[in-house]
Amino acid sequence: MSFTWVPLDNAAKIFPAVTTEEHTTVFRLSAILNNNVNYTWLQSAIHRVEERFPYFRVCLKKGFFWYYLEHVNQPVVPVADNKGLCRAFRSSFYTSPILFRVLAIKNLISVEFSHVITDGTGGKQFLNALLTAYFSEGGIPMEQAPDFQLNSNINQQEYEDAYNRYFKSEIPPVIKFTRAFHLPFQLKKKPRFSTLIFTLSLLEIKQRAAEQAVSVTNYLVSVYLFVLQEIQNELPGYKRIRTNRMLRIQVPVNLRKIYATQSLRNFSLFVLPEIDLRLGKYTFEEINKIVHYKMKLETDRKLINKIITRNVGSEKNPFVRGIPLILKDLILHLKYYTQGANQYSGVITNLGDNRLPDTFSGKIRNLVFIPPPPNKKLKVNCGVIGFKDQLTVCFGNISTSNLLEMKFIRFLTSQGTSVKLMNY
């Protein structure tokens, strides 16, 4: 495969307009090894993997009407993991960085991606390929991860904009959402972003979810809503009256499970399960039922088609296409904070169980997914990934309060799920 430049996919178009030094739109995936990292193996592994993922070795460029991705013909080198989590990729007049990095320290290998080039699924595939190459450099037979073959040929679908492929112009648009409740916590002083990471027994959390007849993702979303309800109800009367009473969680959905594509660029949309506190207090069982049916309904292919139509249709509008980039940035930034961020109270991203060959699992202690730093309205977000018999949960926070995380953990333990805090 070879290309000089490609346009941003539909989901990526918002990120350059809202990216700042704090709201970096960068996420991280880490593998915690049982032994310290061998840098010689890692450098050799990176060289093999970057050739397999050339569509990630790109930088962001400005056109007159749109941003675009330009191929960078330079090798990727690992960097020391000592400068903070999910840092922005800084561009200048003279340089434009590759939009992913590989980091290492002690027994930790991490990859960080700008959301401009991929989502969590794409990042997970890259990390799996990197670990495959890394351990094979150490003499372990290169058994391929079940969902990706490092030695396979590059398929053109891997770098397609799948949103455009499944856009249907005749579909009606979706209905706008009302404003949602936001945590009333103060922001920390810079640098703000910190994490709280803990692990759950995968067997235990599956049992708790089965008791409610829901999936693990739906169960965690229900816990999130239940905890937000507690926080809202515990506010002083005057504050409670002034806040929005709609609690809504943004849950990314991997569209590769709905549409046939091998794209490793962004290809996810959001479902927004909600409860309306104006109708009264909800039991945990009631919330589970609401989340279950809301998730089932909104992941129906016909309804997903409506969201794709809205998102892709706006960029195909001749008037929008003709607006200069400098004005597009202002409009998208304003729209993101006055509409997008107003619509939800929290985010929980579950990348699911990450399957690796058994020969590798004895070398890896755990995997961690750190979501991008939340925006100033949201203040807190959550990333989840499964590996072997554990589910790792990471809360990212830019506020002065850990009340949400503490209530979340307290609720899980009250339901019989053991929680172990992780020193990351």
Offer a few descriptive terms.
eight-stranded mixed beta sheet; single chain; 33% helix; five-stranded mixed beta sheet; Chloramphenicol Acetyltransferase; 424 residues; alpha+beta
User: N-to-C terminal Cα separation, in Å?
Assistant: 38 Å
Q: Regarding CATH, which class of the largest domain?
A: Alpha Beta
Measured on Cα atoms, how large is the radius of gyration?
Answer: 21 Å
- What is the name of the CATH architecture of the largest domain? 2-Layer Sandwich
Please state roughly what percent of the residues sit in beta strands, choosing from under 5%, 5-15%, 15-25%, 25-35%, 35-45% or over 45%: 15-25%
The percentage helix is: 25-40%
Overall tally of structural domains: 2
Account of the 3D structure:
This protein has 424 residues and is an alpha+beta fold. 33% of the residues lie in helices and 22% in strands. It contains 13 helices and 16 strands. The chain has helices at 15-18, 39-52, 120-137, 162-165, 202-211, 216-233, 237-242, 284-298, 301-316, 318-321, 325-340, 358-361, 403-414; strands at 5-7, 26-33, 58-62, 67-71, 79-80, 100-105, 108-114, 194-201, 246-254, 268-271, 274-276, 346-353, 364-370, 380-387, 390-397, 419-421. Strand 3 and strand 4 form a beta hairpin. Helix 2 (39-52) crosses helix 3 (120-137) and helix 6 packs across helix 8. The longest helix has 18 residues, at 120-137.
